[in-house]
Design a protein that fits this description.
Blueprint: H1 2-28, E1 38-43, E2 52-57, E3 64-66, E4 73-77, E5 80-85, E6 88-92, E7 98-99, E8 105-106, E9 112-115, E10 118-119, E11 127-129, E12 134-137, E13 140-144, E14 147-150, E15 157-160, E16 163-165, E17 170-172, E18 178-182, E19 184-186, H2 192-229
Helix pairs in contact: 1-2
Length: 231
């Protein structure tokens, strides 16, 4: 019995260690535009008495922060901007954009933000982005943002810099369910204070399991020693 208890407690410690790692990463990205928090839940397999960590992405929309900067864009509703990288197209909700030397719209990493007809070239003065993603420069249409959605958002894979691998199920976004906001960025969908509270709770649970593991190890040692003295 002590040996099985030790094994179960060791698995529980592994679960809390993974949960602590994910929660700490969420907290570190609490100021990253449009960051989507990861969640680790305990899953019980049939016949198992210890938790199995299951991780997924919380895709709920974050709050919006007004910046009044014309190239700061955000998506209110479903959908993702498309950026072209050296590894191919990637999806993102982060919309703190800028112009490169040639006047192309780029993300914070310098990769092109894609329009429906390719990279968006914005040459002129006043930039206006309409709710449907149409980009107007000095009164003339310069293009339209390519905004897509995915059939199964839970299968998205993070790649860093707020980007996701598009997968095979990319589809045009429902324009009735999406509105592009200019002069605002989406914030991370987590509360830093709650994440700190979660870290403390996880650390206490981890410490309690360590104490339980030490106690069971002591009992197992005593039993082993006593059995060895029999006869």
């Amino acid at each position: 019995m002590p040996l099985q208890g030790i094994l179960n407690t060791a698995r529980t410690l592994s679960f809390y260690a993974r949960r602590q790692e994910v929660t700490a990463n969420n907290l570190a990205n609490s100021s990253t535009d449009a960051f989507k928090a990861d969640r680790v839940l305990a899953h019980a397999d049939p016949g198992s008495t210890s938790p199995v960590p299951v991780q997924d992405i919380d895709l709920r929309q974050g709050a919006f922060r007004e910046t009044a900067r014309p190239l700061d864009l955000s998506i209110d509703g479903s959908g993702y901007f498309v950026v072209h990288t050296s590894q191919g197209d990637r999806l993102t909700r982060g919309g703190s954009f800028r112009l490169d030397a040639a006047g192309r719209l780029t993300d914070s990493q310098g990769d092109w933000v894609m329009g429906t007809d390719g990279p968006l070239l914005l040459q002129g003065g006043k930039v206006e982005v309409q709710g449907d993603g149409t980009v107007v420069v000095d009164g003339g249409t310069a293009g339209k943002l390519r905004i897509v959605d995915v059939a199964e958002p839970t299968r998205l894979m993070k790649e860093g810099y707020g980007r996701y691998l598009p997968g095979q199920d990319v589809q045009p976004v429902d324009e009735d369910a999406t509105h592009v906001r200019q002069g605002a960025v989406e914030e991370a969908n987590l509360d830093p204070m709650l994440s700190m509270v979660d870290l403390v709770t996880i650390q206490r649970a981890f410490a309690a399991n360590v104490d339980a593991l030490k106690a069971m190890d002591s009992v197992l040692g005593s039993v082993t020693n006593e059995v060895g003295k029999v006869g």
